[in-house]
Amino acid sequence: MSGTNRHREGEKEGSLNLVELRPSRTARSTTGPDGTVVVFVPKFTGKLALRWLVPLLANPDMELRLDEIGSFFWNQCDGRSTVGEISSRMSDRFGGETGPMLDRISVFMRRLDESKLIDIHGSSGPPEDVLLAAPDSGRRDSK
Fold first, then answer.
1. Alpha carbon distance 130, 120 (integer Å)
2. In this structure, is the dihedral angle defined by the CA atoms of residues 3, 19, 22 and 90, taken in order, positive or negative?
3. What does the DSSP 8-state code read for residue 95?
4. Judging by beta carbons within 10 Å of its beta carbon (0-12, 13-18, 19+), is residue 93 exposed, middle or buried?
5. Would you say 132 and 11 are in contact if contact means Cβ atoms under 8 Å apart?
6. DSSP label of 124
7. Coil, strand or helix: which one is 87?
8. What is the pLDDT of residues 55-82, one digit of tens each?
9. β-bridge partners, 37
10. What is the pTM of this model?
11. Measuring CA to CA, which of 12, 63, 83, 139 is 20 to 30 A from 43?
């Protein structure tokens, strides 16, 4: 089941606010000389593949190269910083309003969560299955 469809049993859907979530990295990564991050994504995760196939591979991981904004977000995913705090830092660093930045973060977090590259913690800290839905960013549709 993908991260966008999960929620804790007994909680109302959408009861967790995106800005209160605390993402943490679960995959290995490295930072290149230009400051961008390369995330190492395992090619295989099944027990049989890990035991028999992976030892035969020259490189058991795929490399996911993040752009400057994705790299900044990745480095902020420490399990302590909330998405709201990260969004504010990103807006300060890259310019722009927080609302559109939250929309971008929501999409990026969903992809990282579906790929099991991050864990998402609720406002209290422990990992939870959550719904990733951007809060109302206060934007008005321009016509």
1. 7
2. positive
3. -
4. exposed
5. no
6. T
7. helix
8. 666 677 888 999 999 999 999 999 999 9
9. 31
10. 0.69
11. 83
